[in-house]
């Protein structure tokens, strides 16, 4: 409901516009699960495409919009069927899911409102970012939770889909800092945020299991229901622009991420 969304923004604005010099809006709200987006394409289009438009329209309608900065959670899923490796800000997009297509609309409407109306709005093209707080149905967390359960004896199998896809997994905690940095720049722009290193789902599982002293082959089975109608085979980002302009770079790579997520899930249990 876009007018409800705009009303919420208006009441937040009312409560802080007198004291705040700058108002930063970080739009992280979305239907963010790629596989789920095939089952709910229309909802995904509204939440991920039209809701950002409603926020931009709200900003545009404010006479004092020069005080407002907008961050859009864009995504490496825009690159989908990748046209080059690694992917940079100028790599052509080719989304492969209703999620990617909805986010493509949001990406362009942010850029269009920036160019048409001078809004201060940035797209953070973030590659997969993980942490112990990651949703339990995303592959990294699904693996690390299963490892913790298997290690402590409460589970004996893990069912996964495509083990060969490559992702550039970084640590969410560090990626959030890049979002903030984007909104501190004098000129709004769009940035790829990634580690620059890719690994397969199988690599991630191998590291996670072996961190708990287990061999993944004994526990992982394939279930086709976790495969997608169209897959994104290999995402690897080149974060040079983020490094050069924002002074940002990733320090935690996928191996350390797998280990810290396993440790956190074992502790949770
Ligand atoms: P995504 O990159 O945003 O789609 O993040 P996910 O964590 O959902 O998926 C990453 C990759 O893992 C995709 O290529 C999936 O096809 C693959 N994958 C393999 N098995 C699974 C699974 O059981 N669940 C999920 N979510 N992904 C899986």
Q: In total, how many beta strands? A: 10
Please give the count of helices: 9
- Can you summarize the main beta sheet? 4 strands, parallel
Order of helices and strands: HEHHEHEEHEEEHEEHEHH
Structure description:
The chain is elongated. A 4-stranded parallel sheet has the order 1-2-3-8, sandwiched between helices. A two-stranded parallel ribbon has the order 4-7. α4 links the parallel β2 and β3. The protein has 269 residues and is an alpha/beta fold. 44% of the residues lie in helices and 14% in strands. The mean pLDDT is 96. The two termini are 38 Å apart. Guanosine-5'-diphosphate is lined by residues 34-35, 128, 137-139, 142, 160-162, 165, 167, 201, 226, 228, 231-232. Residues 34-35, 128, 137-139, 142, 160-162, 165, 167, 201, 226, 228, 231-232 line the site of guanosine-5'-diphosphate (GDP).
């Amino acid at each position: 409901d876009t007018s409800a969304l705009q009303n919420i923004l208006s009441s937040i604005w009312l409560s802080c516009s007198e004291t705040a010099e700058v108002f930063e809006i970080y739009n992280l709200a979305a239907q963010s699960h790629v596989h789920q987006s095939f089952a709910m394409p229309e909802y995904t289009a509204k939440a991920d495409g039209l809701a950002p438009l409603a926020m931009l329209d709200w900003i545009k309608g404010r006479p004092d919009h020069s005080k407002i900065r907008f961050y859009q959670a864009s995504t490496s899923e825009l690159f989908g069927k990748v046209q080059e490796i690694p992917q940079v800000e100028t790599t052509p997009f080719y989304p492969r899911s209703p999620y990617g297509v909805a986010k493509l609309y949001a990406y362009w409407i942010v850029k269009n409102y920036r160019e048409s109306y001078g809004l201060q709005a940035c797209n953070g093209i973030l590659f997969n970012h993980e942490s112990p707080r990651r949703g339990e149905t995303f592959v990294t967390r699904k693996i690390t939770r299963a490892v913790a359960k298997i290690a402590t004896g409460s589970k004996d199998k893990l069912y996964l889909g495509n083990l060969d896809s490559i992702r550039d997994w970084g640590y969410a905690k560090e990626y959030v800092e890049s979002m903030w940095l984007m909104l501190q720049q004098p000129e709004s722009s769009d940035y790829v945020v990634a580690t620059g290193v890719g690994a397969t789902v199988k690599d991630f599982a191998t590291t996670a299991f072996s961190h708990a002293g287990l061999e993944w082959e004994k526990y992982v089975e394939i279930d086709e229901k976790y495969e997608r109608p169209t897959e994104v085979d290999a995402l690897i980002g080149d974060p040079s622009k983020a490094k050069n302009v924002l002074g940002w770079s990733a320090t935690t790579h996928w191996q350390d991420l797998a280990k810290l997520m396993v440790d956190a899930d074992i502790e949770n249990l």
